[in-house]
Amino acid sequence: MNQADTAWMLVSTALVLLMTPALAFFYGGLVRSKNALNTMMMSFISLGFVGVAWAIVGYSLSFSAGGNYIGDLSRLGLKGVGLEAQGTIPHYLFMAYQGTFCIITAALISGAIVERMRFSAYVIFITLWSVVVYAPIAHWVWGGGWLSKMGALDFAGGTVVHVNAGIAALVAAIVIGKRKDYPSSSLLPHNVPFTLLGAGLLWFGWFGFNAGSALAASPSAALAFTTTFLAPMGTLVVWTLLDYMRSGKPTAVGCATAIVVGLVAITPAAGFVGPMSALALGAIAAVPSYFGILFRTKTSLDDSLDVVAAHGVGGTVGALLTGVFAQKALNGTADGLLFGNPAQLGIQATAVAATIVYSGIMSFVLLKLVGAIVPLRGAADDEDAGIDLSNHGEEAYVHGESTAMGGPGMHLKSSATALRSEMA
Amino acid sequence: MKLIKAIIRPNKVDEVKEALSKVQIAGMTVTEVRGHGRQKGHTAVYRGREYEVTLLPKMQIETVVPDHLMETAIQAIITAARTGEIGDGRVFVLPVQEGYNIRTGEKDAL
User: What is the CATH number of the domain that holds A14?
Assistant: First the structure.
C-alpha cells in the first residue's frame, strides 16, 4: 500500500466522476432547448443506474479472475472487495475508480440518439449494456483477458471506452432511426457556451482519466498527464486551420469537438508515447474526425452529436497510432512501429476490430431486446413537444411566471394535465 | 388615438426611446422579433452544415399616442432609427378604438 498513490487515485476518481456531468453540459448545449434536460439527464442518470449495476455485478465481471473473455461472479455485490491493497491502493478505491469509467462510457452513447429515444428504454439499455458489453471488454484489456495477454496497449480506454461507445452509438443511431425533423429542419445547438463549458470540464477530468490510469503517483502518471495536456492542443490547432480553409470561420462547436477528439485519441496512448509524439498524434487525429463529421452530415445517419466521428473514429485512430508512437524507453512495456516494432500495430488493430465486432453485435441484440419490452422511441407528438415535457414533465427554460409562458409543448393535453396536477 | 408599431434595428432602441421621451411620449412596449424585408440575412455553420439565417433579429416598439402627437412621434422614430442602409425597419400606424388604465379603470380620452 502506498499513500501517495492512494492520494492521487482518490483525486483521480473524483476527477473522472466529474466528466459525466461535464458530458451532460457538452451534449446538452448541442441540442434544441426543448430537449436540453432530457439530453443532460441521459448522462446524469448513468451515475445512478450504471453505477449501481457496476457495484452489484459489473465490477465482478470486469475485474475477477474468470477466464480469457469474461470475469466471474466471485465479487458479486463487492464480495471480497475490502481495505486490502489492489496494486498499491485500497481495493475499494480501485473499484470506485474503474466504476467511473463504466459510467461515462455508457453515457457517451446517448449523443447518437438524443431528441428522440424514450428515456425509460434508454435507461434499461445502458444499464444492461454496461454489464453485457462494457464489463467483458474491460476484462479483455484490463482484467487479465485475452487482449492484455496478447500485448494490446490501451492505457486509459481507447478501445474499452471510446471505440466501444462509438460503435454502440452507431448501432443505436441506426436501430432507433433519425429524428422526425432530420435533416429537413435546422436542428441547431441551443447553448454553445454550455458545450464549451463541458469541453473544458472534460479536459480537466481527463487528467484523472488518463494520468489516473497509471494507478499510481508515478513518472508514468506524469507522462500520461503531459500527453493529455499536449495532444488536444495539436488537434485544436489543426481543426481550427481546417475550419479556416473550408469556410473561413473557426467555429466554437468545432473547437469543443476538437478538444474532445484530441483527448479521445490520446487516451489509449497516454502513458506509452512521448510528448512530441502526443502532439503529432493529436494533430493527425483531427483530420479523419473532421472529415468524418462533414461526411456524416451528407448521409441520412442521424448520429446527432457525432459520437461516431469523435469517439469511434478518434478512438480507433488513437489506438492504432499507439502502435506507431509507443516508446519502450518511456513506458517500459513495448515499442511501436516508429521505434522498430511494426508487429504492435497489428496487435492494436486486432484489439480495435475485436471491440468493433463484439460491441456492434451485442449492442444490436440488446437494443432489439429492450425494444421488445419498451418501445425505443416515443410518439411523434412527444418529439414535437420536446422530450423534456413529454418524458420528464419539466422544461429547461421557463420564462415568466405563468404556465401560459411555457414552451411549444404546453398545448399538449397530457403535459398540461401533468403540470396542473403538480401545481395542485 | 393611434397605435404606432415601429420595427427597428436592435441597437437603435435606446436612441428611439430617448427621441420619443423628448417629445413627451413615455409609455411603450418593446418586443424582440424576427423578420425580414429587403435584407438578405447570412449563413451560419454548425458541425459542417450550413444554414441560411433569413429571419433577422429586430425590436418592435409599440406606443399609443393621441392623434395630435402622431406626426411628431413618427418623425422622431424615423430620425432616430435611420442609418441609411437596408434593414433600418418599418413604421406602421393603426387606429385605436378605446384604451383603459387597469389600475384606475379610467377610459383614455381620445
Answer: 1.10.3430.10
